[in-house]
Amino acid sequence: MKKVLTLFAMVLLLFSISFGSTASSSTPDRVFLDDFSGKLSTNWRVTEGDWMVENNKLVGKGVILSRVDLPTNRVVKFHLKTLEEESVSFLGKYESDENLVRISLNSNGTTQFIVLDEGKKVVDEQFSVPIELSNVHTYRVVFSGAEVRFSTDGETNFEQSFDPITEINGKFGLNTNSQVQVTMVRGTSFETPILITSIGQSPGAKMGQILADRANVSSIYKSRITPQELEETEAKTLIPIIGVSGKGLGAAGLDLSDEIDLASKVFDKAGALSIPIISMHIEGKARRGEMSDPIIKEFVPRSDYVVVKASGNQDDLFTDLANTNDIPFITIEGTAGVSAVLSDLFYSRQEQ
Predict the structure, then answer these.
(1) Rounded to an integer, what is the distance from CA 13 to the centroid of its chain?
(2) Contact indicator for 302, 324 with CB cutoff of 8 Å
(3) pLDDT band at 14 (very low <50, low <70, confident <90, very high)
(4) What is the arrangement of strands in the sheet containing 305-309, beginning at the earlier edge strand?
(5) Structural domains of the chain in order of their starting residue, each with its CATH number
(6) What pLDDT does residue 274 have?
(7) Collapsing DSSP states into helix, strand and coil, what is residue 253?
(8) Which residues of 62-93 are buried (b: 16+ CB within 10 A; e: fewer)?
(9) Residue 332 class from Cβ within 10 Å (0-12 exposed, 13-18 middle, 19+ buried)?
(10) Among 9, 333, 212, which residue's Cα sits nearest to residue 220?
(11) Residues with Cβ < 8 Å from 222, sequence gap 6 or more?
């Protein structure tokens, strides 16, 4: 039975994408961002109706799809409101009109979850989700194996297992009878458990593990890891905390060249194992300078996603590296913001 349905997850918008490519063309796209700050991105395909970007908003009615696919497990988040009192459907996973996952929000306060497989409706569930569609809401849909979680403004609307969707991947999009206005879409595909480690032997890696626990995201912590150890773990995503501590390197009997050499081999192994990399610089200005900057310049361009504390990016080094290499990145104001980022990126054990 053919089961390649794309995760067009949640309600309306098909999260599209403005940063489509990851560091390596041999790995699947895992991050899609669009804040509609320019014209309609070529990463979208309009299949029905009229869609345009105006005043930093996507406005339209009909069907719009991503031109790229995300792997099966994914998280999609977007800000959206309807301009008419009609239904809005999010195509969370989409291969064709015959194979898809659709979440429809209706003006009567119901939400319908449908899975089509070769044109047959194998799932048709209805939930009571009273939502004022005309207000701006943050919608979030998570697919993790057979699990689906749909939430509005941080409140879980429904969470269930639907076995038919486990093998579905592909595009995502929006199918709406109502004109809608979208201000942001983010789609990611990263899996747990995450492995948190250090490049530079700073205390930031241990702090990262604590913050992952607060976010209820399954994690493994290794202050320093070898390529062989990475292969032997169950890690699905590698999160190196970048920042050099001279004291930490000295205590471990290492020098900077040792650290760079080992980290390069670990990154190579992650690539060979198709393990995505989210590099984080979360200790701010204190972890910048002549020791940390070579590591930042070496490994940020090899990442799939980058998280940086604002005080560590005052000279826009991370911004320049990310933009030059088409690496999506997000800025946090304080280290504690790591928990919120992890909650957004992963299927946590409990909605935050």
Answers:
(1) 15
(2) no
(3) very low
(4) 219-221, 194-199, 237-242, 278-281, 305-309, 329-332
(5) 7-188 (2.60.120.560), 194-345 (3.40.50)
(6) 92
(7) coil
(8) ebbbbebbbbbbbbbbbbbbbeeebbbbbbbb
(9) buried
(10) 212
(11) 195, 196, 197, 229
Which residue from 332, 317, 318, 28 is spatially nearest to 170, judged by alpha carbons? 28
Over the stretch 229-239, which tens digit does the pLDDT of each residue have?
Answer: 999 999 999 99
- The DSSP result for 12-25, as a single string, is S-----S----S-T
Q: How far apart are CA 35 and CA 284, in angstroms?
A: 26
Please report, as a single letter, which amino acid is at residue 192: T
Residue 3's pLDDT band (cuts 50, 70, 90): very low
Q: Which helix (H) or strand (E) holds 264?
A: helix 256-272
Contacts of 10 (CB under 8 A, 6+ apart): 76, 90, 92, 103, 139, 140, 141, 150
What is the distance between the alpha carbons of residues 243 and 282, in angstroms, rounded to a whole number? 8
What letter would DSSP give residue 263? H
| Helices 292-299/317-324 angle, 10° precision | 20
Phi-psi region of 279 (alpha: psi -120 to 50; beta: other; left: phi over 0): beta
73 against 7, higher pLDDT: 73
Q: What is the mean pLDDT of the chain?
A: 86
Contact, 196 vs 221, CB < 8 A? yes
Find, among 68, 99, 92, the residue nearest to 78 by Cα. Answer: 92
3-state class (DSSP) for residue 228: helix
- Residues linked to residue 154 through DSSP beta bridges, in sequence order: none
Instruction: Note whether 187 and 142 are within 8 A (CB).
Output: no
SS3 of 190, please?
Answer: coil
H/E element holding 338? helix 337-345
